[in-house]
Batch of 2 targets.
Target 1
Amino acid sequence: MPATQTVSCISVSSSGTPTPVEYDLIIVGTGTGNSIPAAFDDWNIALVEKDVFGGTCLNRGCIPSKMFIYAADQAAAMGEAEKLGVYGRFDRVDWPALVQRVFGRIDAIAAGSFARNSPPAIRGSGYVVASLEAALWAFHRSDTFATGCLLAVNLGEDADTTAAVYGQLAGAYYGAAGIPAPWRDRLAHRDLIIDFADRLHDLAQ
């Protein structure tokens, strides 16, 4: 582990009293990519977020955008359906219901629904928000990469999507050494993947 420099900050307690606190690492922003590897378990770490936990992608960007776009695509498809001999009519958009569909699910996950629920409420359906919730559920219910991965895929349905999302979260947390060696050894294009990962790491230095 590289040598670190402790950073001193002022923490404000619930009573409003400022207290000096020392941290080994301060992470600014709580985006979905901010997983903290087990190697830092003995560090005193602070997460700083001016907005909601999960960052732009989870709360306003990628996931909400895709859900709004899907609804818009369904509305637009009505105008093209006659070419296929399908006739229908587009009446209106229930905007409050659409917003609730988008943010009702996301807010629940951000509030920890994956920690409270179990299958069949947790599903690996392949739907983007459900896949995220299922992956977080598998990660929360396990203490090794392999155990969580098996929980993810055994949900069934779109198992490869759930496992892929879980693998990104758990891989960042457990590191390559936490993935069972037989799994790593059988990985297709393993050497190519390692080469690209090493080069990306070097560019980040």
Target 2
Amino acid sequence: MSATARLSLPYIAPLQAQKQYSYNEAMAVLDQLVQPAVLSRTTTAPPASPDEGDAYIVGASATGVWSGKDGNLACWLNGGWSYRAPADGWLAYVTDTAEFAVFQSGNWTSFVTTGGTSLAKLGINATADLSDRLSVAAAGTLLSHDGAGHRLSINKATSADTASLLLKHNFSARAEKLGIDPPEDPAYWFCRIEGFSSDRAGESPWRYELRLRVRRQDGTPDLLTLACPGTP
């Protein structure tokens, strides 16, 4: 074996002359792959005047000397481009989009966005997407205090929008909502709890409602609505 299995770093052979060549080549590969940061992962044509050490993830349908190197890590070293084919699980920080990219199943995909400080999506024993960015499959979910109280907030953009809790059976909605809606009486908040159930065959739908009249600190009104399934 003339190179390492994972990163293809060259071994120094027994009695090899000019051992420094193999050693220097291995150091250059490590410099390219350890803590990798690339300038972009969408660039398809090699830049005309790269600086020493500039690195890219070669974009799709690349041209010029990058042709056929789509998805490779390309680094400008000693006056030429050095290419490394990624393996599943490799991570690289992408400077122009301030994100981490992960290589999986032949493709680089975004892992972290918003300046590299926030997850774009997170699935815990489940699959998340850009609509349901947090997805959890578990017997329970615990949100605990950090030394004092604990508050769960659901925020909406405008008074015309809905902030709600939707309860489902087999991914089909059965009850809604925990929400803030436009007020019925402009002088007060109304905290309304209502529920319905028509989930089981032959069961008559039912509802219940509880309203708590409160006033906001700034004096402006809104309506908070909570709906839950169950039995009266």
